[in-house]
Write a structure and sequence with these properties.
heterotrimer; A mainly alpha (346); B mainly alpha (284); C alpha/beta (290); A: 346 residues; mainly alpha; MetI-like fold; 73% helix; 0% strand; C: alpha/beta; six-stranded mixed beta sheet; four-stranded antiparallel beta sheet; 34% helix; cell membrane (chain A)
Chain lengths: 346, 284, 290
């Protein structure tokens, strides 16, 4: 009836042609591989049209002034400056498939090694803020969407709007000012104290350095999952089946727990898995503020220092991470949602 | 029964609407003031005066002054004005790209559709900040780097939306009849479909502004955007980073607050416009 | 009808009006009156049908009685259950127990919950399970239905599952909201038999439908709504003889039942009587004119 009640649209989404979970998995994996290959082509093209010549800039730089002419020649040879771009790409891609991502110009170490080191620093940061923002955002979204227009709803929506409007790097700066500079509870920067080798760092120290960056990332990350969950929850709570549950005498609490959570969990988790790319983007900014030696900061350093091999490597690795998130989301959908699991997906 | 109580509730709903309209007007006015004054103050923003350097906020200098004696309030407003103008420009370009790609994907046949879908997935497959860095790098950084970067990366989700919308429209009886009458695809697209897509286009465009502004500030903050001579908000905040540990908190706090306020008001104004454009979706 | 004792009346509705607000583009807001000044009474063992065209706000009547109107709707008037006002607190205690609703379609079932869990409302004690099984088999459904998700049910199965939800409770008032669309005549009458059984066990049944023929065949009394207003409240058998009907709209409806197509003259008369004929024509086109 035209009562302005939006009919609950069951969460059917396009999931390719996969009829079973395994079919779905194969299809999505192939798609992911294709996408990553295309991302690498796009990044390669962008980096090669740049007027900034990596060798010129870097050889001119003090850090690389120490390079011997032979090294420069080797680099030139490696990058094949005279080769046409297509051939250069193919030789790069062939090397990558063999596990060789080239040599970082700034760090003067293999790109794969640099990325692995930076990624292992970032991973905990990314994982903890991803989990934290997901859990908090989901809870807030459920509480807000439970009853549209209530105080709780308006607080959560207001907060989400505010968080979405606040630049992540500024949130990080405010946290830094308040908790590191003013209260001196946390160190101002770097993930480990200077002059200490990696083996000597205590876990506690690592955590102490990661708390503020993780908080900054979570605070901004909450907003999208909270708003999305709220939106879904509102439409569920106004759906026909919740109306019927109410008519059958189920209490509001039971409705939220029995019907609300069940139906809102899948879309919320899908969104959270798909938002890995967003968290990585945020980490670029936050790591810069805290001079946290992670992948995000490495990307900025590589970009500013024209370290093309490293930037290319980081782009591909983050694209793989983001695509895995999407892959995980669609697999999860296939396993959890009976409409797809039972092969009735249209 | 509870009829009376519900009626009162209805009246309060109306008042809330009036209140939100007032807030909408105030936001638009505020944004306009920032844009205009920032433009006028462009030169005043870079005036240095070492007799007044490092002043904390006071009556004369609302946001204090920096180490070169520049008035931070004037600088911030000038920077935000630049961000707003750049944001409007880039969002408009992005929205037009989204519109054309979305429309052509749905109208020009399967091959084009596959290509556009791939392009959308591609742009969405790279973390946004990283793509901005790549494009900025490709353009040799600077003004064009940030402008092109933002204009070329914000269209994907709107294009996807418009593509879906056109697919639905294409199935509607009057478009099918027009097609049977021998009208060309281009004619159908621009005479029959485009007008129907206008609401989505405008909503998408408006909701793009805050993102464009935030990303401009972020990429400039990282050092890939506008040059340090420009009074850009990202530059102001990245400079303030060096003084954080020295306790000059005002250099970071107020410019950031004003930036957040501008983005928030864009969000709010955008949502209000969308709500008016599509009354069926929201009842608040 | 006033001479009946109030206790015998399970449901009494007096002067019920339901309206809801909708926002237009820009600042516009309009109030839509769905039900106006409706009177209704249902006694023990009785099936009362409320008939009206689609979109005439009949479902809102059901929702108003159950206390589940959407947030943008408001109502006025009086609703008594067994002679006592049905306040929002009381309806919350009674619904799902003494008051049950049979909804229109499968969208009223949780799409991600197995049917069995929905029928038992998550209760796991053996008596409930036993009862659930009995009811399913009495509705002609196999036990495997309990292990199915709503999307796996066919239209007829879903309908019977919905009726089973009502049968799970020993309700005194059953409100059936459009229980038959999409079913062929034979199945529809089979469905109505279930409601007759509930009535025979001492419940009152409110049947909300757009199908006049179904209403006349299965209900004891029929109330006809037109534009949200009651135009006729009468015994079902009155529809067998047009002379027993008072209102021109119901007379036209009566004539329009299958096998009784109205003549052009009759329509002309109706126009003179002041009933907007496009309403009738639209109604007939929708219901019988295919």
């Amino acid at each position: 009836m035209g009562v302005g009640r939006r009919a609950h649209r069951s969460g059917r989404t396009g999931h390719g042609t996969g009829k079973t979970v395994w079919g779905l998995l194969a299809f999505q994996t192939a798609r992911m591989a294709l996408l990553v290959a295309l991302v690498s082509i796009l990044a390669f093209v962008l980096l090669s049209v740049s007027p900034v010549d990596p060798l010129q800039t870097n050889v001119g730089q003090a850090a690389l002034g120490a390079m011997s002419p032979e090294q420069v020649e080797r680099l030139k040879g490696y990058w094949g400056v005279d080769l046409p771009p297509a051939e250069r790409y193919l030789s790069w891609a062939a090397d990558v498939l063999r596990g060789d991502m080239g040599t970082s110009l700034l760090y003067r170490r293999p790109v794969a090694e640099v990325i692995w080191e930076k990624l292992s620093n970032s991973l905990w940061l990314l994982a903890s803020s991803w989990l934290l923002s997901g859990l908090l955002g989901f809870t807030l979204g459920v509480l807000a969407g439970r009853k549209r227009g209530r105080l709780c709803d308006r607080l959560v929506t207001g907060y989400s709007l505010l968080a979405a409007s606040t630049p992540a790097f500024w949130t990080a700066m405010v946290l830094l000012m308040v908790f590191a500079v003013y209260f001196k509870w946390f160190p101002i920067g770097l993930s480990v104290p200077i002059g200490v080798t990696a083996e000597e760092i205590a876990l506690g120290d690592r955590i102490r350095h990661a708390v503020l960056p993780a908080a900054a990332l979570s605070l901004t990350g909450i907003s999208s999952v909270a708003l999305h969950t709220r939106e879904k929850m509102v439409s569920i709570m106004e759906s026909d089946f919740v109306l019927f549950a109410r008519a059958r005498g189920e209490s509001e609490t039971s409705i939220v727990l029995r019907h609300g959570l069940r139906n809102v969990l899948i879309p919320a988790m899908t969104l959270q898995f798909a938002s890995i790319s967003e968290i990585i983007g945020g980490s670029v900014l936050v790591e810069q503020v805290f001079s946290y030696p992670g992948l995000g900061q490495a990307a900025v350093t590589a970009g500013l220092g024209s370290d093309v091999p490293l930037l290319l490597g980081i782009t591909v690795v983050t694209a793989v991470l983001a695509a895995s998130g999407n892959l995980a989301a669609s697999i999860l959908y296939g396993i959890v949602d009976p409409r797809i699991r039972k092969g009735a997906a249209r | 029964m509870s009829g009376m109580k519900k009626r009162e509730n209805g009246k309060r709903l109306g008042n809330r609407r009036l209140f939100s309209m007032g807030l909408f007007g105030a936001s638009v006015l505020f944004l306009l003031l920032v844009a205009v004054f920032g433009y006028v103050w462009q030169d005043a923003a870079s005036v240095t005066d070492f007799s007044r350097k490092n002043l904390p906020p006071c009556a004369g200098y609302l946001f204090g002054t920096d180490w070169m004696g520049r008035d931070m309030f004037v600088r911030t407003v000038a920077g935000l004005s630049m961000s707003i103008r750049l944001g409007l420009l880039t969002a408009a370009v992005s929205a037009v790209i989204a519109f054309l790609l979305g429309l052509s994907a749905a109208v020009l046949g399967r091959a084009v559709d596959g290509l556009v879908t791939l392009l959308i997935d591609l742009v969405m497959g790279i973390p946004h900040m990283l793509l901005l860095i790549l494009i900025s790098f490709a353009c040799g950084k600077g003004f064009w780097g940030v402008t092109l970067g933002i204009a070329l990366t914000h269209w994907a989700s709107l294009a996807r939306l418009i593509r879906g919308e056109v697919f639905q429209l294409r199935e509607s009886p009057y478009i099918r009849i027009a097609g049977k009458l021998g009208k060309s695809r281009a004619y159908l697209a621009f005479h029959h479909m485009a007008p129907n897509l206008l609401p989505q286009f405008i909503t998408g465009l408006i909701l793009m502004f805050p993102h464009a502004i935030l990303h401009e500030a972020s990429i400039t903050f990282l050092g890939f955007g506008l040059s340090p001579e420009e009074p850009a908000i990202g530059i102001i905040l990245s400079e303030s980073m060096k003084y954080l540990a020295m306790g000059k908190w005002w250099l970071a706090l107020f410019p950031g607050l004003l930036l957040t306020a501008v983005v928030l008001m864009f969000h709010y104004a955008g949502q209000t416009i969308c709500r008016m454009a599509a009354p069926g979706s929201v009842h608040e | 009808m006033e001479n009946h004792r109030a206790e015998e009346e399970i449901l009494t509705v007096k002067g019920l009006s339901v309206s809801f607000t909708q926002y237009d583009r820009g600042f516009g807001r309009k109030e839509i009156q769905a039900v106006t000044d409706l009177d209704l009474r249902i006694r023990i063992g009785e099936i009362v049908a409320v008939v009206g065209a689609s979109g005439s706000g009949k479902s809102l009547l059901a929702h108003a009685v159950m206390g589940i109107l959407p947030y943008n709707a408001s109502m006025s008037g009086e609703i008594l259950f067994k002679g006592t006002p049905l306040t929002s607190g009381r309806v919350r205690r009674l619904r799902g127990r003494e008051l049950v609703l049979v909804p229109q379609s499968v969208t009223y079932l949780d799409p991600l919950m197995k049917t069995g869990q929905q029928l038992t409302k998550g209760r796991k004690n053996p008596e409930i399970l036993e009862k659930c099984k009995n009811i399913l088999s009495s509705c002609g459904l196999g036990l495997e239905v309990m292990d199915k998700y709503p999307f796996q049910l066919s239209g007829g199965m879903a309908r019977r599952v919905l009726i089973s939800t009502a049968a799970m409770e020993d309700a005194e008032l059953v409100i059936a909201d459009e229980p038959t669309p999409g079913l062929d005549k034979k199945t529809a009458m089979g469905v109505m038999d279930h409601f007759r059984q509930m009535a025979d066990r001492g419940a009152g049944v409110l049947l909300i439908t757009h199908d006049l023929e179904l209403a006349v065949r299965s209900a004891d009394r029929v109330t006809v709504l037109y534009g949200g207003r009651t135009v006729e409240e009468t015994e079902a058998f009155s529809f067998l003889d047009e002379g027993l009907l008072k209102h021109p709209y119901t007379k036209a409806l009566c004539r329009s039942m299958p096998g009784k197509w109205p003549s052009a003259d009759a329509l002309e008369n109706d126009r003179e009587s002041g009933i907007p004929d496009e309403g009738i024509l639209e109604y007939m086109r929708k219901e019988y004119g295919r």
